[in-house]
Design brief:
CATH class of the largest domain: Mainly Alpha
Shape: elongated
Strand content: 5-15%
Number of strands: 8
Order of helices and strands: EEHHHHHHHEEHEHEHHEHHEHHHHH
CATH topology of the largest domain: Fumarase C, Chain A, domain 2
Helix content: 55-70%
CATH superfamily of the largest domain: Fumarase/aspartase (Central domain)
Strand order of the largest sheet: 1-2
Number of helices: 18
C-alpha cells in the first residue's frame, strides 16, 4: 500500500492501481451500482485532457516533458479504462470522475517520466487539470460521446428503414384487411403497412440527424461556471479548436459559455428524440407480433423467422422474441426519458449537479436503440408473408362493404350486416334482393384490387 494525502488527510491506496486519494474517497462514498461508463465517453474525456495538455504546452504553461507525457498517456486510454472506477451515479456533478481520470493520467505519466505511482512528477490538478474544471470537461466529453453514438444510431436507423422498404416492395401486392382498434377495417396491402413503418423511421432519421447541431456546442474553456475563471484568454479562445483537431469530432465553442455550463436542455432534446424513435420501434415491433400471432388461431398474416425454440414445454412453438427484445429496450428508454427530463430541470443556478446521470443514461439509451435497430433489421429481412391467410381474412371482412354506403346509406348497410349476422355472402344477397339486382353483379362493383388505392368509390 502507498499513502496519499489531500487537504482532508491521508488515505491508503493499493500499490498497483493508477488512481489515487480522491478516487479512493469516492469509492468509499458511492457504493457500486454495477453501472459502467460508455467507453466512448471515457475516450472523449481523455481527448479533452490531451487537447488541454497540448495547448497548455504550446502556450508555455506546461513543461514540454510533462505535457508530452500527458499526451502520450491519453493515447493509452483504452488500456487505462479499467482504472476509471468511480460509479457513473456518483454525487458531486462528476468531480469524482474527473479526479479519477486526472489521477490515472498523472500516475501513468509519472511512470513515463521515470517515477513511481504516488510520486506525482505529473500532478493530477496542477498539470493534468490545468485551466479546467469538472464543470466544463465533463459535459464536453458527454456531448462528444453523444455525437459519436448518435451517428452510429442514425446509420442503424437508415439500415432498418432500408430493410423495411425491401419488405414494402416485396409485399406490395399482398392484400389483406386493415384493422382499427384491433377489429376488421377496409382492405390494405401488406406492403402499405410496411411502407408506413418506413416513413415513421424516415422521420426519426431526419430528426436525429438535425439534433446534432444543438449538442455540438460545448462549454470547454468556461471552467467552473462559464466565466473562464482561472484560465488565460488564449487558452479559452483556442481549446475547442484544439479538441476538434485531437478528436476529429466537430464540436464548436458555445456562444454563451455560462448558458452551456448551467443548462443541459440539449440533452433533454436529444433524449426526447430518442424517445420518439423508441415509440416507433415499439409500435412496429408490437404490430409485427400481432400480424404473426397464432399463427393458426389468430392473425397469422406474416410468418416470423424461426430464430429459436419458443417454449421449454410446448414443442414446435415459435415466439416473436426479437420484437419482444426491442420492446423491452424501449421500455427502458421510456424510463430514462423521465430521469433525464427531471435531472435537466433540477439544475440549480450556475451548474447542473446531475450531469453524470444525464450523460450516462443518454448514452445508455443510444446504445440500447442502436442494438434494437440492428436486431429488428435482421429479423424483418427474414419475415415472409402468408398470402393465403391474408386472402382468407380479406374475403371474410364485412368492412369490404364500406363503399356501398354511397348507394344504400350507412344505416341500411349496417342493419343488413346485423341481420346477416356479420356474414359477407348473406349481406350481399340481402342488399341485392332489396335493390333488385344480381348479388354477383353487386360483388363485381366492389373491386378489392382497386380498393386499396386513393379515392376508390363504387
Amino acid at each position: 500500500m502507498r499513502r496519499e494525502q489531500d487537504y482532508l488527510g491521508e488515505v491508503e491506496v493499493e500499490d498497483e492501481v493508477y488512481y489515487g486519494v480522491h478516487t479512493v474517497r469516492a469509492l468509499r462514498n458511492f457504493p457500486s451500482t454495477d453501472e459502467h461508463f460508455d467507453k466512448i465517453f471515457l475516450w472523449a474525456y481523455f481527448m479533452v485532457k490531451k487537447a488541454a495538455a497540448i495547448l497548455n504546452t504550446e502556450l508555455g504553461y506546461l513543461d514540454e516533458q510533462v505535457g508530452g507525457a500527458i499526451v502520450r498517456v491519453c493515447d493509452e486510454w483504452e488500456q487505462l479504462s479499467n482504472q476509471i472506477v468511480v460509479d457513473p451515479l456518483s454525487g458531486g456533478a462528476g468531480t469524482s470522475v474527473n479526479m479519477n481520470i486526472n489521477e490515472v493520467i498523472a500516475n501513468r505519466a509519472t511512470e513515463v517520466l521515470g517515477g513511481e505511482k504516488g510520486e506525482y512528477l505529473v500532478h493530477p490538478l496542477d498539470h493534468v487539470n490545468l485551466h479546467q474544471s469538472t464543470n466544463d470537461t465533463f459535459p464536453t466529453a458527454g456531448r462528444m460521446a453523444v455525437i459519436v453514438r448518435l451517428r452510429e444510431l442514425v446509420e442503424k436507423v437508415i439500415a432498418l428503414q432500408e430493410a423495411v422498404q425491401i419488405k414494402e416492395k416485396e409485399f406490395y401486392n399482398v392484400r389483406k384487411p386493415g384493422r382499427t382498434q384491433l377489429m376488421d377495417g377496409p382492405p390494405i396491402m401488406l406492403g402499405q403497412e410496411f411502407g408506413a413503418f418506413a416513413d415513421a423511421l424516415a422521420r426519426d432519421r431526419w430528426r436525429l440527424n438535425k439534433v446534432e447541431e444543438r449538442i455540438r456546442s460545448v462549454n470547454l474553456g468556461g471552467t467552473a461556471i462559464g466565466t473562464g475563471i482561472g484560465a488565460p484568454k488564449q487558452y479559452i479562445l483556442r481549446i475547442v479548436e484544439k479538441l476538434r483537431e485531437v478528436s476529429g469530432v466537430k464540436v464548436a465553442k458555445a456562444e454563451n459559455l455560462i448558458d452551456a455550463t448551467q443548462n443541459l436542455d440539449t440533452f433533454a432534446e436529444v433524449h426526447g428524440l430518442l424517445k420518439s424513435l423508441a415509440v416507433n420501434l415499439y409500435k412496429i415491433s408490437n404490430d409485427l407480433r400481432l400480424l404473426s400471432s397464432g399463427p393458426n388461431t389468430a392473425i397469422g398474416e406474416i410468418v416470423p423467422p424461426r430464430v429459436q425454440a419458443g417454449s421449454s414445454i410446448m414443442p414446435g412453438k415459435i415466439n416473436p422474441v426479437v420484437p419482444e427484445y426491442v420492446m423491452q429496450l424501449c421500455h427502458v428508454v421510456f424510463g430514462h426519458e423521465t430521469i433525464i427530463s427531471h435531472a435537466c430541470a433540477l439544475g440549480n443556478l450556475e451548474l447542473n449537479q446531475f450531469t453524470p446521470v444525464i450523460v450516462h443514461y443518454t448514452l445508455k439509451s443510444l446504445g440500447y436503440l442502436t442494438n434494437a435497430c440492428e436486431a429488428l433489421r435482421e429479423y424483418i429481412l427474414k419475415i415472409e408473408a402468408n398470402p393465403e391467410r391474408c386472402q382468407q381474412h380479406l374475403l371474410s371482412s364485412v368492412s369490404n362493404l364500406t363503399p356501398l354506403i354511397k348507394h344504400f346509406g350507412y344505416e341500411k348497410v349496417a342493419r343488413v350486416i346485423k341481420l346477416a349476422n356479420w356474414d359477407v355472402e348473406e349481406t350481399f344477397k340481402r342488399l341485392a334482393r332489396d335493390a333488385g339486382i344480381d348479388p354477383e353483379d353487386l360483388k363485381r362493383r366492389l373491386d378489392l384490387d382497386r380498393m386499396t388505392g386513393l379515392g376508390y368509390t363504387v
